[in-house]
Amino acid sequence: RPLRAELALQAAARGVPVLHVPGRALDTLCRGRPHQGVCLEAAPLPFRSLRDAEEPRPGDGESGGRQLLWLVLEHIQDPMNLGALLRSAYFLGVDRVVATHGNSCPLTPTVSKASAGAMEVFDVYSTDDLQGFLKAKRAEGWEVVGTASRPEDVEGVPVISCSEFRWDKPLIVVIGSEGEGLSLESQLQCQQVLAIPPGRALHPGLDSLNVSVAAGILLHSICSQKRRQGD
């Protein structure tokens, strides 16, 4: 109750109307999902268009002189996974997240809650031509790396352990969908594919990680190098 009273005071101070309603009304508004006794009604939050975004150059802009790191999401469909991916990307210092526009989860309230609010403070961009986008970034001097839970399924692209990768230029990490992983077309735009080596012989059917967990491990492995341009 004290926390809800404080939230109500903050909302009122910002001119947001506060209504006290029965718990079942909140259940309906949240479609049965947990709400901790508070629900905020807000306008939809769309993806930002890359066409309208100012393109930072390697070494400046949003990175503040650090090496740039972008996360690209291909056909992530589960809102809990998308929220967890955004939360990890924000926490670990990713400069920009780009998602495919089609066949992907939109920025829903469930995504926002799963992101612990990261979705509200961290712009998420979209592209309707992923392969064209990756090809253009490679031409600008960026390195594009993909991810694979099953290295044996990757064809024509070198596969290395994430611990062997060295971050020495502006980087795009591409994460594939929950069920299919990276499409072949996206794999072929990658210069390398990163894999997470398992710690034991795996039982069939338990041979991969949840996509958001895998992305967190890969991003931490990369960001822990703390390489800066010019090193």
Q: What portion of the residues fall into strands of 2 or more residues?
A: 5-15%
Helix content: 25-40%
CATH class label: Alpha Beta
- Global geometry: globular
What structural category characterises the helix and strand content? alpha/beta
| Mean pLDDT figure | 88
Low-confidence stretches: 59-64, 227-231
* Strand numbers in spatial order across the main sheet: 1-4-3-2-7-5-8-6
Query: How many domains in all?
Result: 1
Largest sheet: 8 strands, parallel
Number of strands: 8
Gyration radius, in Å: 20 Å
CATH topology: Alpha/beta knot
User: In sequence order, what are the helices and strands, one letter per element?
Assistant: HHEEHEHHEHEEEHEH
CATH superfamily grouping: SPOUT methyltransferase, trefoil knot domain
Distance between the termini: 52 Å
In terms of quaternary structure, the protein is single chain
CATH second-level architecture: 3-Layer(aba) Sandwich
Q: Tell me the number of helical segments per DSSP (H or I, 4 or more residues long).
A: 8
Structure write-up:
The relative contact order is 0.15. The chain has helices at 2-13, 23-29, 79-92, 109-114, 118-121, 130-139, 184-187, 211-223, and strands at residues 48-49, 69-73, 96-100, 124-127, 143-147, 159-161, 171-175, 192-195. It has an eight-stranded parallel sheet with strand order 1-4-3-2-7-5-8-6, sandwiched between helices. The longest helix has 14 residues, at 79-92. It contains eight helices and eight strands; from the N terminus they run H-H-E-E-H-E-H-H-E-H-E-E-E-H-E-H. Helix 3 (79-92) runs parallel beside helix 8. The model is unreliable at 59-64 and 227-231 (pLDDT under 50). It is of the alpha/beta class. The chain has a single domain (48-55, 64-225), classed as Alpha/beta knot (3-Layer(aba) Sandwich). The protein is globular, with a radius of gyration of 20 Å.
